[in-house]
Known about the structure:
Helices cover 47% and strands 13% of the residues.
Amino acid sequence: MPHETLVFIPPMLCDAGVFGPQMLALGNDHAVMFAPTTQGERMEEIASQILTWAPGKFALAGMGMGGIVALEVLRRASERVTRIALIASIAQPETPDAAAAREPHIVAAKSGGRWHEVLQDEIKPAWMAPTSDRVGLVRQLTQMGQALGPAVYVSQSRAMQRRKDQQATLSQIRQPATVICGRHDGQYPVKRQEFMAELIPYATLEVIENAGYLPTLEAPDQVTMALRRWMNAPQAARV
């Protein structure tokens, strides 16, 4: 049986580098693809674009905003998704307070001259594990954000504000599924990840002890091993 294609979907303001170690390692056994989230101001638009170029069947690994997009892809075309991994992500919609809190950053990003300030405020070293190379990770994330630019930030922020509640989608998953998170994640705490995993029938939960909200870069080997276990899980019929 041919190995499945694995499609990676990134968090906000991240390029393929956020999955670099995993794509390199898993690419030895699987075809790997990167799905950018740079076009569209709704999760539905981004998901539709991915479905236009993705293979007929594929595995999905989404992180942060990418996990939200992955759930929308699954909701729209579950018959094409062979398995799903949600890394440091969320299924709930944006709260009114959180949506309102994005507006000053959106305005600042549009102004042009304050883009660097927005990036500095969006990247949270405190959300990373104490043992992580926070300086190096901030530098890497800043470079990604600078390359993508303020227009992408604005569109992604709008998509986050308008996202739907996908908790019902979680309960309908029958594919092999895993939830991966960092013990020190200051954005999406472990308790939220546990709750999300409990909503998915037969899901596994992988808590990476020495990682925060960027487990793919903070603890790349552990995340790669977790993804390898998930990719090797049998696709038994589940009801």
